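Supplementary notes for students who missed Thursday's class. We covered one full example, reproduced here. Read the sequence, then the structure, then the short commentary at the end.
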Amino acid sequence: MDTLENIRTFLAVAKLGSFSAAAKSLNTVPSVITKRIQQLEHKCRAPLFSRSTRQVELTAHGRNFYENFSTLIVEVDRALEENVRTGTETAGRMKVKCPTTLAIHTFADVITSFQLEYPNISIDLFLVDRSVNPIDEGFDVAIGAFGNTYSHVVSVDLYPMKRVLVASPCYLARRGKPKHPRDLVEHDCLTLLTSGNIWYFRGKSGDINVSLNPRFSSSDSQIMARAVKRGLGIGNIAREFIKEDLDNGSVTELLTDFSIPSLYVKALIPDQRASDPAITEFIKWLQVQTSPMKVAG
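Structure (token representation):
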């Protein structure tokens, strides 16, 4: 018979003071209780009870084992409950940060589908259009595409975000097309506040950096895309945010002989929270749901 079952039987006999009472509480018969105790005594190599016709009492060995076995069973039950909780009923609450456009375009659906799969996990989603240190600002997970790194923070790559240079036909009719990245200094350029005013390109002759004096800046890519489509100027925008406009001709891709380094969307987690079961499942979900975008990027 199972040793743990025998130990539970021993504890029941010791608590109730008789084999028959233990049998009743464990929904079995006294002969099974007797056999379990005999097997446990054999394993312990010592008598655990002194028996009389009226009562059952613990021996000195039995009293020592009772204390140790009681502690053991508590720990075993706790471990089993934890396994059930983390394995099949993962629960918890997370504070998650994500940039506005990324949330609306991609992660809103990813996060809501996660909560449908894990109904016992609650999420507070904050839309923040800047890089944050999740430790300093109290986030369990910070999603973003910024290159910042922080001490004691785990960085998990999700997918690359390809960027393109675009302008509307009406702006190009008015100002003409730039033929080289350096021509951009003569154009109206629209920049993301979070990315800065230096644009980086790679060409056949090497890397090119262009410092700009932007006409308009915003912390949100959706606003930037609208400004580009209205003809305000040239924007450097993630392809996934502007793809539909490229396909229907609302904007035109520029300087296609030069590539723009991709940004990598990442999840930042304080290392002290990285092993939390709810957060672990959430990160796995993000990786699976965004994996097709690695190919698209």
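Commentary. Residues 163-254 form a domain with the D-Maltodextrin-Binding Protein; domain 2 fold (CATH 3.40.190.10). The longest strand covers residues 153-161. If anything here is unclear, bring it to office hours.
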